[in-house]
Amino acid sequence: MSDRIFAGVWVLLCLGGLMVAWQLHSEYSYEPVGPRPFPLGIIGLMLLCSVALLLRRPDAIDWPHQRVLQRLLTMVIVLLMYAWGFEWLGFPLATAILTAIIGMLFGATLPAAGISGVVLGISLWFAFDRLLDVTLPLGVWLN
């Protein structure tokens, strides 16, 4: 039943996304077809998959254990905190904290999670900011 609820909600979200994507237009022509086809294609494929999920024969429900559900809830809370503190903390620090917490959720030790978080935060910031020229915030405390 949960997969049908998910598929029904996803169908509604896809229909809303198709309405938003249909209204996309650009003031200047930089491509022959414009910006509309890619979002329409992706959302159309998602709609097709959600309808297929809605129409298929249901499987037996096997809910995860309480420990797994607690980890998932922790993951959602940490991701919301990441989004909330992204500009204030800055990309390198916020990503390092996020990576360290996710690493500990998956069983890493505190030193290993901390080191991997710091390395990933700095290396991703360097890759995006210096190599790909995508400006990411350093945080209020560094500016």
Question: How would you summarize this macromolecular structure in one to three sentences?
Answer:
The chain is an all-alpha fold. It has helices at 2-22, 37-55, 66-89, 91-105, 110-131. Helix 1 packs antiparallel against helix 2, helix 3 (66-89) runs antiparallel to helix 4 and helix 4 (91-105) runs antiparallel to helix 5.
Question: Would you mind describing this structure in some detail?
Answer:
Helix 1 (about 1-20) packs antiparallel against helix 2. The protein has helices at about 1-20, 35-55, 65-90, 90-105, 110-130. It is an all-alpha fold and about 140 residues long.
Please give a handful of descriptors for the protein shown.
single chain; 143 residues; mainly alpha; 5 helices; 71% helix; flat
Q: Pairing-aware structural class of the strands and helices?
A: mainly alpha
User: Any idea what the radius of gyration is?
Assistant: 20 Å
Number of helices: 5
Helix content: over 70%
**Span between termini:** 50 Å
**Which stretches of 5+ consecutive residues score pLDDT under 50?**
none
Find the count of extended strands (DSSP E, 2+ residues).
0
Order of helices and strands: HHHHH
Shape: flat
User: Residue-averaged pLDDT, rounded?
Assistant: 88
Largest sheet: none
Quote the beta fraction.
under 5%
Map the helices and strands.
Elements: H1 2-22, H2 37-55, H3 66-89, H4 91-105, H5 110-131
Helix pairs in contact: 1-2, 3-4, 4-5
